[in-house]
Amino acid sequence: MDTEKVESLHFIEQIVEDDIANGKHEGRVLTRFPPEPNGYLHIGHAKSICLNFGLAQKYGGKTNLRFDDTNPTTEETEYVNAIKNDVRWLGFEWDGEELYTSNYFDQLYDYAVQLIKDGKAYVDDSTAEEIAALKGTPTEAGKDSPYRSRSIEENLDLFERMKAGEFPDGARVLRAKIDMTSPNMLMRDPLIYRIKHETHHRTGDKWCIYPMYDFAHGQSDSIEKITHSICTLEFENHRPLYDWCINSLGIFPSRQIEFARLNLNYTVMSKRRLLLLVKDGHVNGWDDPRMPTISGLRRRGYTPASIRNFAKRVGIARRENVIDISLLEFSIREDLNKTAARVMGVLNPVKLVITNYPEGQVEEMEMINNPEDDSMGSRKVPFSRELYIEREDFMEDAPKKFFRLSQGKNVRLKGAYIIHGTDCIKNDAGEITEIHCTYYPNSRSGSDESGVKAKGTLHWVSTAHNIKAEVRIYDRLFLDETPLGHKDKDFLEFINPDSLKTITAYVEPSLKTAKSGDRFQFMRKGYFCVDPDSTETDLVFNRTVTLKDSWAKKNKKK
Ligand code: ATP
Ligand code: MG
Q: Ligand 1 test: best mutation among 12, 45, 277, most atoms within 8 Å of CB?
């Protein structure tokens, strides 16, 4: 994790450097990020974004943003806008306007016609079941379709009539004529066009045939003259088809390179499953702070830099692995430690009365905003006779090692005085309702002449000056490390019923002007950010992360 040390190249950087050294494509580097607009982006996409845009930045190249919109059923403009917003928020800008695979529908159609004319594609009238029946298995060769030997003229005629809308959905498909005995199932005459009488979010009703992913993706790369087309490992066995299409058409030779996708424990990442969580109300939308989406992480308080640093730490490899979510949390702590102002907020308040402090007196205590960064300055926090402290910071009969407040012991109030615990008042249920203490008037922070010692320091807010705030405390959305790793159980069964708790806290008055998105460290309590639900009168905070890895502690106890 030492960012100072010289970083070695990962295998894709190595490929790019070799290509540049060999003058391939005149040393040009053009990558692309190709999301399908069927959901919001997640942290896995962030890894891909950082990789593609990062390579271009490093090697003086550019990156296209291309929406892979070949499936009219699931794609929506809302997703397009959210994706653009998320990429920009992460700190990247694509080259020119955003692009769409649908921009190339005419060109892709012409490519298909070219394949037919070259005897490399045919129209198949078989049903999906009939096609599947002849496909063979990984250990058994497939068999030729009875339509495979159709004449070029007949294929051209039928394909044109497919386009003209003469046939219903599923009646016919266009297939590449490759090899039904190939050991690679994807090379056994894959479908390249299908009939779908559906309105497309951009091309409307112009088309009723749509290219399949494998026919659209590589050709789109080629049309854009992408030099390095980076995708995740599950596309490795698509590469022969990717190359077959490009070679058969004799078009620009983009090169596909695969890397291991990001897998994170305690969450799920496919857009399909995330959509289910949203639709079924398990979370409050795509940007729910418990979601692994970029918009959820943003709302939770993650910074773009923390996500970029996380992607860097995870690294680029060829082998699948699972990353512990604590690495993501480490990245945001590291960033906020440097950038977030320290403030005081009491989450579980109990009243503290300083019996020898003058009634009605208020002192303004000067507090440093961030000891890591002097330029962040300081602020004043009002101190008075009655304060709130955390309930768990007081113990009546405390053991020796309890360095917080107890009767007969000293403790410092952050930025203020040393106090001495004297007494506490309880209600009928035995619950402490008020703690009494005295203070040492000459122990004020910064000018302490008391000679009195105190081991611990507590945060506090003045009862007369605090602001009430709603604080949303999040825990992991899933209780199981691998919610998808159980054959007999649905991942929804592992949802953590306590992943969101809402409490009322008292925070210091300087937070009155806090705006949606502002991030703070509540001293001793963690990092918090202001939620967009916040209004001028009702502050709402999200807990981004605790100060320490509380799960690591839990696991040790086990
Ligand atoms: P999902 O199943 O979540 O929808 P996808 O791969 O279908 O993922 P796309 O929108 O097609 O989503 O992906 C856009 C790009 O992001 C692709 O290049 C894809 O390889 C990459 N990507 C998606 N998920 C991950 C991941 N977990 N780690 C790294 N890259 C990813
Ligand atoms: Mg997908």
A: 45
195 touches 162 (CB < 8 A) = yes
Cα distances (Å, whole numbers) of residue 3 to 107, 309, 312, 348: 46, 10, 10, 38
- Tell me the CA–centroid distance for residue 80 and ligand 2, in Å: 14
Is residue 446 within 8 A of residue 460, CB to CB? The reply is no
Cα 5 to Cα 381: distance, rounded to the nearest angstrom: 41
Cβ–ligand 1 distance for 45 under 6 Å, the answer yes
CB burial string 492-502: b at 16+ within 10 A, e below: eebbeeebbee
261: Cβ below 6 Å to ligand 1? yes
C-alpha 271 – ligand 1 centre gap (Å): 9
CATH fold label, 345-459: Ribosomal Protein L25; Chain P (2.40.240)
- Give the span between the Cα atoms of 135 and 129, in whole angstroms: 10
Q: How far is the CA of 408 from the centre of ligand 2 (A)?
A: 63
The ligand 1 atom at the shortest distance from the C-alpha of residue 263 is 27
**Tens of pLDDT, residue by residue, the chain (558 residues):** 445 556 799 999 999 999 999 999 999 999 999 999 999 999 999 999 999 999 999 999 999 999 999 988 877 889 999 999 999 999 999 999 999 999 999 999 999 999 999 999 999 999 999 999 999 999 999 999 999 999 999 999 999 999 999 999 999 999 999 999 999 999 999 999 999 999 999 999 999 999 999 999 999 999 999 999 999 999 999 999 999 999 999 999 999 999 999 999 999 999 999 999 999 999 999 999 999 999 999 999 999 999 999 999 999 999 988 999 999 999 999 999 999 999 999 999 999 999 999 999 999 999 999 999 999 999 999 999 999 999 999 999 899 899 999 999 999 999 999 999 999 999 999 999 999 999 999 999 999 999 999 999 999 999 999 999 999 999 999 999 999 999 999 999 999 999 999 999 999 999 999 999 999 999 999 999 999 999 989 999 999 999 988 776 566 544
Q: Using the mean position of ligand 2's atoms as its centre, give its distance from the Cα of residue 45 in Å.
A: 11
Question: What is the residue extent of each domain of the chain?
Answer: 11-261, 271-341+469-557, 345-459
Residue 508 is among the residues annotated as catalytic for this protein: no
Q: Is residue 271 annotated as part of the catalytic site, yes or no?
A: yes
* CATH architecture assignment, domain 11-261: 3-Layer(aba) Sandwich (3.40)
What pTM, to 2 d.p., does this model score? 0.94
What's the CATH number for 271-341+469-557? Answer: 2.40.240.10
**Does 271-341+469-557 match 345-459 in CATH topology?**
yes
Write down the catalytic residue from 13, 28, 36, 273. Answer: 36
User: What is the C-alpha separation between 523 and 459, in angstroms, rounded?
Assistant: 7
